[in-house]
Specification:
The chain is mostly helical and 125 residues long. Helix 1 packs antiparallel against helix 4 and helix 5 packs across helix 6. The radius of gyration is 20 Å and the shape is elongated. The chain is built from six helices and no strands. It has a domain of 61 residues.
């Protein structure tokens, strides 16, 4: 959708769903078209790419683009909420295995998520 509107944000920002990218997308949806104002929303390391950001944010975002980007952002928010909900359920199911998880995490290269997957597979949770 952004490419169709000639917005080249992905060419400058490695993750457009980070804090800066999200702020710029929301501003675009709200109708902000000034590339300088949009580039001012950059945070952290992305601020060093201000000139490239301004060039990348010169586009022709119309109402149709804004509507679709808004729907995409809403859908992403919904999915993030669902992930949080499922993560909470997983945490609750794995609570009785906390000591096992902690021991598995002592294995080099095994972090929390891998320990959870291994435990779930072995315990048939």
């Amino acid at each position: 959708m952004l490419e169709d509107a000639n917005i080249k944000l992905t060419g400058v920002a490695t993750g457009i769903m980070g804090v800066s990218g999200r702020a710029m997308l929301e501003a675009l949806v709200a109708g902000t078209t000034d590339p300088a104002l949009l580039a001012d929303l950059a945070k952290g390391k992305l601020r060093a790419k201000r000139e490239a950001l301004e060039q990348a944010l010169v586009g022709r975002m119309n109402d149709h683009h804004r509507s679709l980007v808004s729907m995409h952002l809403s859908h992403i928010d919904f999915l993030d909420e669902q992930i949080e909900h499922l993560s909470a359920q997983i945490t609750e199911c794995l609570r009785p295995f906390e000591t096992v998880l902690e021991r598995l995490e002592t294995i080099p290269g095994v972090k929390r998520r891998t320990a959870e997957v291994l435990t779930a597979e072995v315990a048939s949770i």
